[in-house]
Design a protein that fits this description.
The chain is mainly α. The chain has two domains: 47 residues, Single Sheet (Rubrerythrin, domain 2), CATH 2.20.28.60; 333 residues, Citrate Synthase, domain 1 (Orthogonal Bundle). The structure holds carboxymethyl coenzyme *A. The site of carboxymethyl coenzyme *A has 19 residues, from helix 17. One of its GO terms (cellular component) is cytoplasm. It catalyses: oxaloacetate + acetyl-CoA + H2O = citrate + CoA + H(+). GO terms for molecular function: citrate synthase activity. Pathway: Carbohydrate metabolism; tricarboxylic acid cycle; isocitrate from oxaloacetate: step 1/2.
């Protein structure tokens, strides 16, 4: 890592700030000593210009539309890898050898069941509870079940917690789904791979055989790979911030799930599908495009735009291909929602407003259509995102705990409230 300096004129003095270069990507002006040296804070709502940490996991070039995990392009991983291979890569930093992969698959597979007592936890929720609400609660509750993996100072326990989370998340997600639709829970089947096992736990019923369709399992796998990590996004930053206080990993992941739920983040795939069905027909697209451009209308085209990508989201391209594979396999030829999606994408990509603001379709634009075709209700979409993102969250959490520069995350503020004043008794107010 090379070092140069930047100069800041402030308070009549010139301050030298270290400039650090990563292996690739923009340089970073190190302001860690700014307050000590100048008495001033920086102000950056939404952290648009702030690197909150050093990381070697994921690299995004939003202008070029590039996404790399540990250096490997996402399209190559999605095309040739399987999800657990990507999990290994994110957690350990390198692609596994055959022996390492077999061992890792075995270790994850052995942890797919959840403590039987956890099944009782579900019945405390209303049947019509949103599955993400159930996920926040049940994943947080893992810390009450697996005490032997909550000592974050022990590397072995950290890895056991990581593997438990990767392994149990699909089981908990499938249970949330089954509870939501009133069907009995289906236990994991360890002879199946990660994605096929998940489809099995969601769609099998005890009264008949269920054979997982390999094309659909591969599509599920790809969806998991595409969502596995995305550097310091809102939910990952939430996990890191929660973890920076020394909280246990299960509680931190529950915090990440809560953040992911929002429609500006993981909730967008659900919102995108709701929007496509609300548009309903290609004839109504201009009306919605006009609304999206209207400053006085809070409506936004869901599945469009991204904080980092100012080019086509590389994941959206793969997702679009996967959508067509799934619809082809299921013989869905005329999906009105797909027609609306394709036409909406075409119009938006040629519209001056979207071009000027660099608003391209993001991954959520196509993932909703695919998940619907796979048989999931919209309420499950963000849950599936959480299943996939768990490995990213836990890899980032581990990296943070193992970083010697790690300190509790504690941002400062620009205070604009009342200055000091005396308390007034209620009778005199
Ligand atoms: N439709 C219409 N206009 C938009 C949209 C949109 N989807 N997204 C951004 N804009 C406009 C926005 O009004 C603003 O215009 P102006 O400069 O005139 O005020 C400009 O583009 C910049 O938007 P911003 O809100 O400042 O950008 P941001 O980086 O803060 O927000 C975003 C990024 C993803 C929250 C936003 O684009 C959005 O709300 N998109 C729809 C929701 C969505 O699809 N989210 C999924 C993100 S990808 C998966 C994930 O992260 O989980």
């Amino acid at each position: 890592m090379t070092e140069s300096t930047a100069k800041l004129e402030f308070g009549g003095k010139t301050h030298e700030l270290k400039v650090r270069s990563g292996s690739v990507g923009p340089d970073v002006i190190d302001i860690a000593s700014l307050y000590k040296d100048t008495g001033a804070f920086t102000y950056d709502p939404g952290f648009t210009s702030t690197a909150s940490c050093e990381s070697g996991i994921t690299f995004i070039d939003g202008d070029q539309g590039i996404l790399l995990h540990r250096g490997y392009p996402i399209d190559q991983l999605a095309e040739h890898g399987d999800f657990l291979e990507v999990c290994y890569l994110l957690l350990y930093g390198e692609l596994p050898t055959k022996a390492q992969k077999d061992d890792f698959d075995l270790r994850v597979t052995r942890h797919t069941m959840v403590h039987e007592q956890m099944t009782k936890f579900f019945s405390g929720f209303r049947r019509d509870a949103h599955p993400m609400a159930v996920m926040c609660g049940v994943v947080g509750a893992l810390s009450a079940f697996y005490h032997d993996s909550t000592d974050i100072s022990d590397p072995h326990q950290r890895m056991v917690a990581s593997i438990r989370l990767i392994a149990k998340m699909p089981t908990i997600a499938a249970m949330a789904y089954k509870y939501y639709i009133g069907q009995p829970f289906v236990y994991p089947k360890n002879e199946l791979n990660f994605a096929a096992n998940f489809l099995h736990m969601c769609f099998a019923v005890p009264c008949e055989d269920y054979k997982v369709n390999p094309v659909l399992a591969r599509a599920m796998e790809r969806i998991f790979i595409l969502h596995a990590d995305h550097e310091q996004n809102a939910s990952t930053s939430t996990v890191r911030l929660a973890g920076s206080s020394g909280a246990n990993p299960f509680a931190c992941i529950a915090a990440g799930i809560a953040c992911l739920w929002g429609p500006a983040h993981g909730g967008a795939n659900e919102a995108a599908l709701t929007m496509l069905s609300e548009i309903g027909h290609v004839d109504r697209i201009p009306e919605f495009i006009a609304r999206a451009k209207d400053k006085n209308d809070p409506f936004r085209l869901m599945g469009f735009g991204h904080r980092v990508y100012k080019n086509y989201d590389p994941r959206a391209k793969i997702m679009q291909k996967t959508t067509h594979e799934v619809l082809g396999e299921l013989g869905i030829k005329d999906d009105p929602m797909l027609d609306v999606a394709i036409e909406l994408e075409r119009i938006a990509l040629t519209d001056e407003y979207f071009i000027e603001k660099k608003l391209y379709p993001n991954i959520d634009f196509y993932s909703g259509i695919t998940l619907k075709a796979l048989g999931f209700p919209t309420a499950m979409f963000t849950v599936l995102f959480a299943v996939a993102r768990t490995v990213g969250w836990i890899s980032q959490w581990k990296e943070m705990i193992e970083d010697p520069h790690q300190r509790i995350g504690r941002p400062r503020q620009l205070y604009t409230g009342a200055t000091e004043r005396d308390y007034v008794p209620i009778a005199k107010r």
